[in-house]
Amino acid sequence: MLLRAPRTPLVPSDVPDPEPGPGELRIRVAACGVCRTDLHVADGELPDPKLPLVLGHEIVGRVDALGPGVERFREGDRVGIPWLGWTCGACPACRSGRENLCARARFTGYQRDGGFAEAAVADARYAFPVPEAYGDAEAAPLLCAGLIGYRAWAPVRGAERLGLYGFGAAAHIVAQLARHAGQRVFAFTRPGDAEAQSFARGLGAEWAGASGERPPEPLDAAILFAPVGALVPAALAASAPGATVVCAGIHMSDIPAFPYALLWGERTVRSVANLTRRDGEELLALAPRVPVRTQVVPYPLERANEALADLREGRLRGAAVLVP
Ligand SMILES: [Zn+2]
Ligand SMILES: [Zn+2]
Predict the structure, then answer these.
(1) Can you state the percent helix, strand and coil of the chain, rounding each to 5?
(2) Phi, psi at residue 176, to the nearest 5°?
(3) What is the distance in A from the centroid of ligand 1 to the CA of 97?
(4) Distance, CA 83 to ligand 2 centroid (Å)?
(5) Which of 26, 255, 59, 20 is nearest to 141 (CA)?
(6) How far apart are CA 211 and CA 191, in angstroms?
(7) What percent of the chain lies above the pLDDT cut of 70?
(8) How far is the CA of 225 from the centre of ligand 2 (A)?
């Protein structure tokens, strides 16, 4: 399913199978998750994508061809391919364990072709073995919703009262991690979305309400998954002194001006960007132990545009996954 230009629908296309170069492997795609970042690329909100482009960076499949020099995997291995597709390995960020901030990084389904396809090629160094506890479709959302959720959650995993704004694919995974760690979870959804609120309660949230509401107790931390800048002052207003508000999305509408009193009291606002391979190793080891269960909504590959539209309109309960 090719994106030929931003703000146009994906087009079903016949292209030759990609050939793995040195250090690369080719995957026969078994499932590929649909992420909000795919929407941002398709909608032209992220600059300069490769074009034409195969979206998709939550790929699960089996290796069916190896380029020269690949030692880590063999044909038939089940692997997951995440957003982080390549880093330079030489810059200060890469050399200090922060490859997620590499200025030369290249990302799957953005600068490299991704997994909205029957086959994909990836640099073997950035592929993960997929835990056996998960089916192909169930594993796919771990690779971005899970990974970016994990990276956003890690700095606030010690907070007692955790607010999650936007209860989609990432939040439904983080809620399970948080409950497992003994945190209390408060879920915020679009106003009137009773279905999402009951979904959140079913995953252990002790309270669920609209994003503008005050929770029954102030929050010690909040993670914003919804790409809405106005949620930053809303989350600060719902937070206790010392709280941290983490912006987890790659793109957000502008944050409106707000009174300094909302930040006062050593509240912190921060973002998280991308992932490191270490995040992936940690999450994929932790998820089966919790165990995190992913709720997936499967779509045939050729209905990718429908999956994107359902995500845009907030119609999903859990994670959309394309199945070739
Ligand atoms: Zn680098
Ligand atoms: Zn993503």
Answers:
(1) 30, 25, 45
(2) -70, -40
(3) 10
(4) 6
(5) 59
(6) 7
(7) 100
(8) 11
Burial of 274 (0-12, 13-18, 19+ CB in 10 A): buried
**CA nearest 23: which of 59, 61, 62, 71?**
71
Residues in Cβ contact with 225 at an 8 Å cutoff, skipping those fewer than 6 apart: 149, 152, 164, 165, 166, 167, 168, 170, 171, 248, 249
Assess whether pLDDT exceeds 90 at residue 79.
Answer: yes
Would you state the pLDDT for residue 125?
A: 98
Ligand nearest to C-alpha 55: 2
Contacts of 132 (CB under 8 A, 6+ apart): none
Q: Which two tokens stand for residue 18?
A: 């990609």
* Distance between Cα 185 and ligand 1 center (Å): 36
Residues with CB under 5 A from ligand 1 (ion): 87-88, 91, 94, 102
What CA–CA distance (Å, rounded) separates 92 from 44? Answer: 30
pLDDT digits (tens, 9 = 90+) for 219-268: 999 999 999 999 999 999 999 999 999 999 999 999 999 999 999 999 99
Q: How do residues 136-150 score in pLDDT, each as one tens digit? A: 999 999 999 999 999
Distance 265 CA to ligand 2 centre (A): 33
Task: Tell me the CA distances in angstroms from 134 to 79, 146, 246, 296, one per residue in order.
Answer: 12, 13, 28, 12
Q: Which ligand is nearest to the CA of 96?
A: 1
Distance 109 CA to ligand 1 centre (A): 19
Q: How far is the CA of 266 from the centre of ligand 2 (A)?
A: 30
- Neighbouring CB atoms inside 10 A of 212's CB total 12
Amino acid at 52: P
Q: Any idea how long the chain is?
A: 324
